[in-house]
Design goal:
By secondary structure, the protein is of the alpha+beta class. The chain has helices at residues 31-42, 73-76, 81-88, and strands at residues 3-11, 16-24, 49-55, 62-70.
């Protein structure tokens, strides 16, 4: 999977870097694949990457991804919970007895 960084913006106050990436691929890859690819491209831990949006313009073979890379795990927790759940999955619920 070839990732091209279209835009990279550092937000020092929010302790994160916002990325816009493009992938040349016919079908949309899974978020977990994207997570690993972005982490390896930027040389960071996959736990610090949150995928905000994945879009595929109609009729095109390119996929546009909006992602956030945080400076630490503490700052990832300040991200909206629905984005974290989308990226890494929801925690398993404990069964009631």
């Amino acid at each position: 999977m070839k990732l091209d960084i279209v835009e990279e913006k550092k937000h020092a106050i929010l302790h994160r870097t916002d990325l816009v990436l493009e992938i040349e691929q016919k079908n949309t890859p899974a978020r977990k694949e994207l997570l690993q690819a972005i982490a390896s491209k930027k040389g960071t831990d996959a736990g610090l990457v949150v995928i905000e949006k994945v879009g595929n313009p109609f009729g095109q073979t390119r996929v546009r991804v909006h992602a956030r890379i945080y400076d630490s795990a503490e700052h990832v927790k300040k991200s909206p919970q629905f984005l974290i759940h989308r990226t890494i999955g929801k925690p398993a619920k404990e069964e009631k007895k």
